[in-house]
Amino acid sequence: MNLKFASAIAIASISLSGCATVLNGTNQPVEFESEPAGAVIETLAGQTCTTPCAFEMRRGDDSMVTFTAAGYEPVTVYIQSRTGGGVAGNILAGGLIGGVVDASNGASNHLYPDPVYIRMAPVGSGEPALMLDKDGEIISTVAEYNAEVAEDVREGIVEQGLYATVDDVPPAD
Protein backbone atom coordinates (compact mmCIF):
# COMPACT_ATOMS: atom_id res chain seq x y z
CA MET A 1 0.00 0.00 0.00
CA ASN A 2 2.76 2.48 0.92
CA LEU A 3 4.66 1.69 -2.31
CA LYS A 4 1.55 2.40 -4.42
CA PHE A 5 0.94 5.65 -2.54
CA ALA A 6 4.57 6.76 -2.93
CA SER A 7 4.48 5.91 -6.63
CA ALA A 8 1.27 7.88 -7.11
CA ILE A 9 2.79 10.90 -5.34
CA ALA A 10 5.92 10.69 -7.51
CA ILE A 11 3.92 10.46 -10.73
CA ALA A 12 1.65 13.34 -9.70
CA SER A 13 4.56 15.59 -8.76
CA ILE A 14 6.31 14.92 -12.08
CA SER A 15 3.18 15.58 -14.11
CA LEU A 16 2.29 18.70 -12.14
CA SER A 17 5.68 20.31 -12.66
CA GLY A 18 7.12 21.10 -16.03
CA CYS A 19 10.08 19.08 -17.23
CA ALA A 20 11.90 22.16 -18.56
CA THR A 21 11.28 23.96 -15.27
CA VAL A 22 13.06 21.17 -13.44
CA LEU A 23 15.86 20.71 -15.99
CA ASN A 24 16.50 24.29 -17.15
CA GLY A 25 15.00 26.58 -14.57
CA THR A 26 13.37 29.85 -15.49
CA ASN A 27 16.62 31.80 -15.92
CA GLN A 28 19.45 31.48 -18.42
CA PRO A 29 22.98 32.82 -18.12
CA VAL A 30 23.55 35.05 -21.16
CA GLU A 31 27.10 35.98 -22.11
CA PHE A 32 28.03 39.36 -23.59
CA GLU A 33 31.18 39.85 -25.64
CA SER A 34 32.40 42.65 -27.84
CA GLU A 35 35.12 43.66 -30.24
CA PRO A 36 36.73 45.67 -28.82
CA ALA A 37 36.57 44.07 -25.37
CA GLY A 38 35.70 46.44 -22.53
CA ALA A 39 32.42 47.79 -23.90
CA VAL A 40 29.87 48.73 -21.27
CA ILE A 41 26.54 47.03 -21.72
CA GLU A 42 23.22 48.03 -20.20
CA THR A 43 20.20 45.75 -20.19
CA LEU A 44 16.60 46.87 -20.38
CA ALA A 45 16.40 46.08 -16.65
CA GLY A 46 19.18 48.63 -15.98
CA GLN A 47 21.91 46.08 -15.23
CA THR A 48 25.38 47.05 -16.43
CA CYS A 49 28.69 45.26 -16.87
CA THR A 50 31.87 45.50 -18.92
CA THR A 51 32.48 42.90 -21.62
CA PRO A 52 33.20 40.07 -21.45
CA CYS A 53 30.50 39.46 -18.83
CA ALA A 54 27.25 37.58 -18.22
CA PHE A 55 23.84 38.03 -16.59
CA GLU A 56 21.12 35.64 -15.49
CA MET A 57 18.08 36.60 -17.57
CA ARG A 58 14.52 35.23 -17.52
CA ARG A 59 14.07 32.69 -20.30
CA GLY A 60 10.54 33.86 -21.09
CA ASP A 61 11.31 37.59 -21.32
CA ASP A 62 12.30 39.45 -24.47
CA SER A 63 14.82 42.19 -23.82
CA MET A 64 17.34 44.52 -25.38
CA VAL A 65 20.88 45.51 -24.48
CA THR A 66 23.00 48.49 -25.50
CA PHE A 67 26.78 48.34 -26.00
CA THR A 68 28.85 51.53 -25.63
CA ALA A 69 32.60 52.11 -25.93
CA ALA A 70 34.69 55.23 -26.43
CA GLY A 71 35.44 55.76 -30.12
CA TYR A 72 32.69 53.37 -31.28
CA GLU A 73 29.07 53.84 -32.32
CA PRO A 74 26.65 52.68 -29.60
CA VAL A 75 24.72 49.60 -30.68
CA THR A 76 21.47 48.15 -29.32
CA VAL A 77 20.60 44.49 -29.82
CA TYR A 78 17.26 42.76 -29.26
CA ILE A 79 17.30 39.57 -27.21
CA GLN A 80 14.49 37.25 -28.24
CA SER A 81 12.84 34.60 -26.10
CA ARG A 82 12.28 31.63 -28.41
CA THR A 83 10.25 28.50 -27.73
CA GLY A 84 12.54 25.50 -27.34
CA GLY A 85 12.22 22.31 -29.35
CA GLY A 86 11.41 20.23 -26.29
CA VAL A 87 7.89 21.60 -25.85
CA ALA A 88 6.18 18.79 -27.77
CA GLY A 89 8.25 16.17 -25.97
CA ASN A 90 7.41 17.77 -22.64
CA ILE A 91 3.70 17.62 -23.38
CA LEU A 92 4.00 13.96 -24.38
CA ALA A 93 6.20 12.96 -21.42
CA GLY A 94 5.04 15.38 -18.76
CA GLY A 95 1.45 15.75 -19.76
CA LEU A 96 -0.56 18.81 -20.59
CA ILE A 97 -0.06 20.31 -17.14
CA GLY A 98 3.74 20.11 -17.44
CA GLY A 99 3.59 21.79 -20.83
CA VAL A 100 1.38 24.56 -19.47
CA VAL A 101 3.68 25.11 -16.48
CA ASP A 102 6.77 25.39 -18.68
CA ALA A 103 5.05 27.67 -21.19
CA SER A 104 3.70 29.98 -18.49
CA ASN A 105 6.98 30.47 -16.64
CA GLY A 106 9.17 30.55 -19.78
CA ALA A 107 11.28 27.53 -18.82
CA SER A 108 10.69 25.91 -22.22
CA ASN A 109 12.21 28.96 -23.95
CA HIS A 110 15.79 29.98 -24.61
CA LEU A 111 17.22 33.43 -25.21
CA TYR A 112 18.83 34.27 -28.53
CA PRO A 113 21.46 35.31 -29.33
CA ASP A 114 23.66 33.72 -26.68
CA PRO A 115 26.36 34.77 -26.52
CA VAL A 116 25.49 38.30 -27.55
CA TYR A 117 28.76 38.92 -29.37
CA ILE A 118 29.08 42.23 -31.22
CA ARG A 119 31.80 43.77 -33.38
CA MET A 120 31.27 47.47 -32.86
CA ALA A 121 31.78 50.05 -35.64
CA PRO A 122 34.30 52.86 -35.13
CA VAL A 123 32.70 56.32 -34.94
CA GLY A 124 32.44 57.88 -38.40
CA SER A 125 33.54 54.73 -40.26
CA GLY A 126 30.17 54.12 -41.90
CA GLU A 127 30.65 50.41 -41.15
CA PRO A 128 27.75 48.42 -39.67
CA ALA A 129 27.94 46.76 -36.27
CA LEU A 130 28.14 42.99 -36.72
CA MET A 131 26.74 40.03 -34.82
CA LEU A 132 29.25 37.24 -34.32
CA ASP A 133 28.87 33.62 -33.28
CA LYS A 134 30.74 32.15 -30.30
CA ASP A 135 33.80 31.55 -32.54
CA GLY A 136 33.90 35.16 -33.77
CA GLU A 137 32.46 34.38 -37.21
CA ILE A 138 30.03 36.90 -38.72
CA ILE A 139 26.35 35.93 -38.50
CA SER A 140 24.82 39.14 -39.85
CA THR A 141 24.72 42.85 -39.24
CA VAL A 142 23.04 43.92 -36.03
CA ALA A 143 20.55 45.95 -38.08
CA GLU A 144 19.53 42.88 -40.15
CA TYR A 145 19.07 40.73 -37.05
CA ASN A 146 17.11 43.43 -35.21
CA ALA A 147 14.83 43.93 -38.23
CA GLU A 148 14.03 40.18 -38.27
CA VAL A 149 12.96 40.02 -34.61
CA ALA A 150 11.83 43.60 -33.90
CA GLU A 151 8.07 43.10 -34.04
CA ASP A 152 8.09 40.00 -31.81
CA VAL A 153 10.56 41.41 -29.26
CA ARG A 154 8.88 44.80 -29.01
CA GLU A 155 5.47 43.12 -28.45
CA GLY A 156 7.07 40.87 -25.80
CA ILE A 157 8.55 43.85 -23.99
CA VAL A 158 5.09 45.50 -23.92
CA GLU A 159 3.47 42.25 -22.65
CA GLN A 160 5.93 42.29 -19.75
CA GLY A 161 4.54 45.67 -18.76
CA LEU A 162 7.80 47.56 -19.31
CA TYR A 163 6.19 49.93 -21.82
CA ALA A 164 2.57 50.82 -22.52
CA THR A 165 2.67 50.37 -26.31
CA VAL A 166 5.02 49.02 -28.96
CA ASP A 167 5.59 52.61 -30.11
CA ASP A 168 6.99 53.45 -26.65
CA VAL A 169 9.72 50.77 -26.88
CA PRO A 170 12.98 52.44 -27.95
CA PRO A 171 14.02 51.29 -31.41
CA ALA A 172 17.16 49.18 -31.75
CA ASP A 173 19.83 49.93 -34.31
From TrEMBL:
<protein>
    <recommendedName>
        <fullName>Translation initiation factor 2</fullName>
    </recommendedName>
</protein>
<keyword id="KW-0732">Signal</keyword>
<feature type="signal peptide">
    <location>
        <begin position="1"/>
        <end position="20"/>
    </location>
</feature>
